């Protein structure tokens, strides 16, 4: 990669982050449905066509933050050590996320993270778009697990477990408890749930 190509890629990434950050700040302040794409473009100081080059839909302005975790479960399965069962690797990965208070596990009490999750979970169009992301993750995980219905069923079960655990953790934190306080329950719930998987 040439230096100019690297510079161009970094500039595009900064522009994307600036647009996304401006959008999330506006959505958290006013609510998703009360902010237009024009409002976001103005706040990010870009044109509407530029905004759509980075984010094809208004929902993507919020959900791009999940992109870092897109395909993560499949990677965990593919990159696991020899002799480790896929479910064991996924369980360990989720537990490590709980220990780090990773927002994807729902166990983060940072006010912006709690508000962000509330925005996603209570806005129907965002929840619907998030389902599409999850279906893509399910397909990737099924491919990593193998072929046939068994792989597809296990992928669906694992991602359902992760979703329910994360939503349960978030709700406890959103109700006013600290992540530190919820952590032991979150670990016990994760252990129980993953141990029920085949």
Structural class: mainly alpha
Report the uncertain regions.
none
How many strand elements? 0
Q: Please state the average pLDDT score.
A: 92
Radius of gyration: 19 Å
Largest sheet: none
What sequence of helices (H) and strands (E) makes up the elements?
HHHHHHHHHH
Span between N and C termini?
44 Å
| Silhouette | globular
Strand content: under 5%
The number of helical runs is 10
As a percent range, the share of helical residues equals: over 70%
What does the model show?
This protein is mainly alpha-helical. The protein is built from ten helices and no strands. The chain has helices at residues 3-30, 37-44, 48-54, 60-63, 72-78, 86-100, 111-122, 124-145, 148-174, 179-195. Helix 5 crosses helix 6 (86-100) and helix 7 (111-122) packs across helix 8 (124-145). The chain is globular. The N and C termini lie far apart (44 Å). The mean pLDDT is 92.
Topology readout:
Layout: H1 3-30, H2 37-44, H3 48-54, H4 60-63, H5 72-78, H6 86-100, H7 111-122, H8 124-145, H9 148-174, H10 179-195
In short:
With about 200 residues, the protein is mainly alpha-helical. The chain is about 75% helix and about 0% strand. The model has no long low-confidence stretch (mean pLDDT about 90).
Please give a handful of descriptors for the protein shown.
0% strand, mainly alpha, 198 residues, 10 helices, single chain
